[in-house]
Amino acid sequence: MEYVIQTKGLTKSYGGIMAVSHVNINVKQGDIYGFIGKNGAGKTTFLRMVLGLAAPTSGEIALFESKELGAQRNKIGSIIETPALFPFMTARENMEAQRRLVPGATKEDAAELIKLVGLDNDKKKKVKNYSLGMKQRLGIAVALLGKPEVLLLDEPVNGLDPMGIIEIRELILKLNKENGITILISSHILGELSKLATRYGIIDRGVLIKEFTNAEIESGNNRYIQIKSKEPQRVQEILTHLTTPDKIVIRDQNTILLYDYVDRSAQVNRELALQGVCVDEISVQGEDLESFFVETMGGMKA
User: Fold this and answer.
1) Do the strands 17-28 and 150-154 form a parallel or antiparallel pair, or are they unpaired?
2) 3-218 — its CATH code?
3) According to CATH, where is 3.40.50.300 located in the chain?
4) For residue 212, with 0-12 CB atoms within 10 Å meaning exposed, 13-18 middle and 19 or more buried, which class applies?
5) What is the pLDDT of residues 20-64, one digit of tens each?
6) From its phi and psi, is residue 268 left (phi > 0), alpha (psi between -120 and 50) or beta?
7) Residue 113: φ, ψ to 5°
């Protein structure tokens, strides 16, 4: 099995308004799939159709390369919009209430999941007193009851503080790498997705614009080392001993661009220092997820 989620021409309209339009998506087993789009682009509607919470107007869905969607959806855990939690219960009480609804889930499973998401030390604290990040982690624990093979997360870091974002990021990476769970994350926060995803899909006004991988971004030939120095001519002279002249560009009186050694900027900096050149700033520049997104969207930002 290669794909866990595939859609063909998936469409949803409400009263003539197209929320999702003929989307063909392919999520591979083992992916962390970043589903990118501005607010209102159709991400949540798409996820709701995959989960059976909304009926498609037209199109097809295949889960685990099967059209038997009822049985296959049992292999998927999800958080859509916000976690459904009981505010006046503790984490353990919430997990027990949810566990009883999941066939085969045991009390031991619930206890292990609370530990997995890092909430085992807050045994008496009511959920109403949790931070937003703690609620998200508990929501993920609930979604993992039943041991799903795929996890769908709708804007999981939206509204979190920096520490909460880091906690959710580390948990997602752990679930993917150590537990082998395929994860689809819908988000408009590009900087965070770039630290997680292996594959992406861009959706705009209900239309899937493009699917691509991290490798496609990173293999671009427009990455370069930007060097700022008050001795640009001297920098250029030294760099000619490392590479060919066509790889060196003097942008202005203080900035030099090196289209080589992109993954060895420390070596470049060391060579300049050994030659007595003072470097004010050195950094790798070029296309990242945000610039790729903006270019794909024709200049529009999320």
Assistant:
1) unpaired
2) 3.40.50.300
3) 3-218
4) middle
5) 999 999 999 999 999 998 888 999 999 999 999 999 999 999 999
6) alpha
7) -70, -40
